[in-house]
From TrEMBL, chain A:
It comes from the Bacteria. SMART domains: Transket_pyr. Residues 4-177 form the Transketolase-like pyrimidine-binding domain. The keyword tRNA-binding does not apply. Keywords: Oxidoreductase, Thiamine pyrophosphate. PANTHER family: PYRUVATE DEHYDROGENASE E1 COMPONENT BETA SUBUNIT, PYRUVATE DEHYDROGENASE E1 COMPONENT SUBUNIT BETA. Signal peptide: none annotated. Pfam families: Transket_pyr (PF02779), Transketolase_C (PF02780). Its cofactor is thiamine diphosphate. InterPro entries: THDP-binding, Transketo_C/PFOR_II, Transketolase-like_Pyr-bd, Transketolase_C. This is Transketolase C-terminal domain-containing protein.
From TrEMBL, chain B:
Gene3D superfamilies: 3.40.50.970. SUPFAM superfamilies: Thiamin diphosphate-binding fold (THDP-binding) (SSF52518). The keyword Oxidoreductase applies. It comes from Micromonospora cathayae. This is Thiamine pyrophosphate-dependent dehydrogenase E1 component subunit alpha.
Length: 324, 323
């Protein structure tokens, strides 16, 4: 079976959607040459009317996309670094997200914001290493964090076809992942549906994005000692609460590993919702996250020190299962 | 200019004027909650600009946006119902004064964020033309907005990508209370010229002058794709917002206000018509607005159970805030 890389899966999804729907177009910085490789070859294939290389004008081209979407098109913006989302938070949250309600349902704003390389790329330091998916889940924008190449393809395709704004976070830590994939089987993955990546009986580990692979590695290491179930939500907003509740009901224990800041992060939301639902837990839940207010330092050892690690996850699993 | 166009312009400025006066009454009576940003004095800009547009051209405006929405052809009764928060309003009671929109007549919304309409309308016009249309778009903004980076970025994109947007600066002299002389280094026209955008300065109190300047700009833009800027010098007769009087802000010299009010677009355009024509139009508008007030006040309140209806075009239903 052929190998598909995560990055190539994103590229393939963009190419397939451009070919399928003339209303889809791409815009972003350096996408003509595909500086991030995500748009490689698409300018030559589709030309300047479908692949718009933009000046460094993030706020204007983000609202330009909103306007184009209001007029019936389906723009996809590539942001090369996650911090640019801070610059255009207003344009996404205050305009694209709010237009349908504020106009009483007169319009839709189907824009996809694709952020390949979100999170730490070691050595990129304070302003290039954020992973701000929890902010978008908080404001109610459909927020997707694929972990595997097949999901990167399928969730991006679904995002482009979705009638509301969607942010697709492709974690830096997942871009290098490759998997055996039957290309003919690549298909849209529904938004809002999680996946059990590994079945287990002692504890459910909810892992977001690239951390799914860390959670699977930890589960392997612990096999024979602790039976770990790995739940990949895939979409953080809307969240597959029923799928997660079913998993935690089976295992009775919960650990969340999430590469965003602790306070008001998605990990806190997951634990709160499970508690509200009254899912019986045999031990208090745990979360492994970045620290509150984290800024990633430059030096490699410091950068790693503020990201969730396999060691921290292993310790959390032991802590949560120690009574059992 | 033929007489029917002169009458049409008068009808629009008079409609906006009387609509605003009625709306202020409804704010005072409590029927409009939250207040409004009156457009009194600036009617000539919306009337003149929209009078030069085709029905399928598009506009987006500002938080002082009633005039733009009405001039483009939205139903005054449904608009007043929207201001009153009624289910039969333009936006089903979800938008109110600062977000009134009517996509059916090409109004992509009043917008409460200063300068926000520039990039949105640029993208929308680009999309309509890419789909084979030959529409132009108008972005209305105030003098305060020319210091917003996003608007200047939009100038650049529109010029670079040849998108026929008419950027209309309604220079009423104040960004809330900040005088334009204290806020704008250089000139508004200079902002446009820096991006290679042709600019026209026009007397915003004269509806016909605005209409003529816009018609010329629209013709050029529609043919060439190049954006244009119109700087319309105008004057806000009343407060920035209806609660301004309550807080007794003092930032304009009374003599300046008197001078500004002496150049009234409704009078200027009305004086161009025979008395009997003007009186006929006035009567029509009084009848129309009496019906609009009745329609708005009789409109049903939206059902609170549907407070988040339309939040998602995809039909996603949000979790509620409590059990």
């Amino acid at each position: 079976m052929p190998r598909l890389s995560y990055l190539k899966a994103l590229n393939r999804a963009l190419g397939d959607e451009l070919a399928r729907d003339d209303d889809v177009f791409l815009l972003g910085e350096d996408i003509r040459v595909g500086a991030s490789n995500v748009t490689a070859g698409l300018f030559k294939r589709f030309g300047p009317d479908r692949v718009l290389d933009t000046p460094l004008s993030e706020q204007a081209f983000t609202s330009f996309a909103t306007g184009a979407a209001l007029a019936g098109m389906r723009p996809v913006i590539e942001f090369q670094i996650p911090s640019l989302l801070f610059l255009v938070f207003e344009q996404i949250v205050n305009h694209a997200h709010k237009f349908p309600l504020m106009t009483g349902g007169q319009c839709a704003a189907p824009v996809t914001y694709l952020v390949p390389g979100s999170g730490s790329r070691t050595g990129w330091a304070g302003q290039h290493s954020d992973h701000p998916y929890s902010l978008f889940a908080h404001v109610g924008i459909t927020t997707v964090v694929p972990a595997t190449p097949a999901d990167a393809y399928g969730l991006l395709v679904s995002a482009i076809r979705h009638d509301d704004p969607v942010v697709v976070f492709a974690p830096a830590g997942a871009l290098g992942v490759r998997a055996d994939v039957d290309f003919a089987a690549l298909a849209p993955v529904p938004l809002g549906v999680g996946a059990v990546r590994r079945a287990g009986t002692d504890v459910t580990v909810v892992a977001v994005g690239h951390l799914v692979h860390d959670a699977l590695a930890v589960a392997d290491d612990l096999a024979g000692t602790v039976s770990v179930e790995v739940f990949d939500p895939r979409t953080l907003y809307p969240f597959d609460w029923d799928g997660l509740a079913a998993s935690v009901t089976r295992t009775g224990r919960l650990v969340v590993v999430d590469d965003s800041n602790r306070s008001c992060g998605i990990a806190g939301e997951i634990i709160a919702t499970l508690a509200e639902r009254g899912v019986p837990l045999a031990a208090p839940p745990a979360r492994v996250t970045r620290p509150d207010g984290a800024v990633l330092p430059f030096a490699q050892a410091l950068d790693r020190a503020v990201q969730p690690s396999r060691e921290q996850l292993t310790a959390a699993i032991h802590h949560v299962t120690k009574d059992g | 200019m033929t007489e029917p166009e002169a009458v049409r312009l008068y009808r629009t400025v008079r409609l906006i004027r009387r609509f605003e006066e009625r709306a202020i009454d409804l704010v005072r009576s409590g029927a409009i909650v939250g207040g409004i940003h009156p457009y009194l004095g600036q009617e000539g800009v919306a009337a003149g600009v929209c009078g030069a547009l085709r029905a399928d051209d598009i506009v987006a405006g500002t938080h002082r946006g009633h005039g733009h929405v009405l001039a483009k052809g939205a139903d005054p009764a449904r608009m007043l119902a929207e201001l009153c928060g009624r289910a039969n309003g333009l936006n089903r009671g979800r938008g109110g004064s600062m977000h009134a929109a009517d996509f059916g007549v090409g109004v992509y919304g009043a917008n409460a964020i200063v300068g926000a309409s520039g990039a949105i309308i640029t993208g929308a016009v680009w999309a309509l033309r890419r789909r084979g249309g030959d529409q132009v778009g108008v972005s209305f903004f105030g003098d305060g907005a020319v210091n917003e980076g996003m608007l200047l970025e939009a100038f650049n994109l529109a010029a670079l990508w040849r998108v026929p947007v008419i950027f209309v600066c309604e220079d009423n002299g104040y960004a809330t209370t900040m005088p334009v002389d204290s806020a704008v280094a250089g000139t508004v026209a200079g902002r446009a010229e820096a991006f290679g955008i042709r600019s026209t300065l026009v007397d915003g109190q004269d509806p016909e002058a605005v209409r003529d300047a816009t018609a010329a700009a629209v013709d050029r833009a529609r043919a060439s794709g190049a954006p244009e800027l119109i700087e319309a010098r105008t004057y806000r007769f009343d407060a920035h917002h209806t609660f301004e009087h309550a807080v007794r802000l003092d930032y304009r010299d009374p003599a300046e206000v008197t001078r500004g009010r002496s150049r009234d677009p409704v009078t200027i355009q009305g004086d161009r018509l025979p008395d009997e024509v003007r009186e006929r139009v006035d009567t029509e508008i009084e009848d129309l607005l009496a019906g609009a007030v009745e329609f708005a006040l009789a409109g049903p309140e939206p059902d609170p159970a549907g407070a988040l209806d339309h939040l998602y075009a995809s039909g996603l239903v949000a979790r509620t805030g409590s059990h």
